[in-house]
Amino acid sequence: MKAILIVFLLLGSTFFIPSSNADRICIGFRCYPRPPYRRPPAPPLSPPPPLLSPPPPFFKPPPPFFKPPPPFFKPPPPFFKPPPPFIRPPSPCGHYRWHPYCPPTSP
Predict the structure, then answer these.
(1) Signal sequence: where (predicted)?
(2) 13-62 pLDDT, tens per residue?
(3) pTM here?
(4) Sign of CA dihedral 92, 94, 99, 100
(5) Which of 82, 102, 98 is nearest to 90 (CA)?
(6) Which of 1, 13, 96, 103 is the most exposed place for a label (fewest CB within 10 A)?
(7) 16 contacts 27 by C-beta, under 8 angstroms
(8) CA-wise closest residue to 30 among 22, 41, 19
(9) Which residues pair with 31 in a beta bridge?
């Protein structure tokens, strides 16, 4: 009974003794290299403050003093009116040669 208690204390104490080495972590009889220190992630950046719109101008600019004069010569109207574009009326004979209104085609 005492032997079991001594073995338990010896084995159990090795698991809970903190390692005095700063570069190693020992658990029981096994030692591992300490992982490199990782900086905790930075907190998320706060959104920038809203940009203030510039204040309205204090004085309204005056209207122009002189109006531009109207054009002296008016351009003449066109001499000939261009004809309207020719639009071919739709015909079923272009694509459908078997249409009853189309003349029979000679081979």
Answers:
(1) 1-22
(2) 555 455 455 678 888 888 888 888 888 888 888 887 777 777 777 777 77
(3) 0.19
(4) positive
(5) 102
(6) 1
(7) no
(8) 19
(9) 26
- Only one residue has tokens 């085609």, namely 105
Distance CA 97, CA 94 (A): 7
Tokens describing residue 104: 């029979």
Instruction: Round to whole Å and give the CA distance between 25 and 36.
Output: 12
Q: In the structure encoding, which two tokens stand for residue 102, read together? A: 């189309």
Q: Which two tokens stand for residue 5?
A: 């208690």
Residue 51, amino acid: L
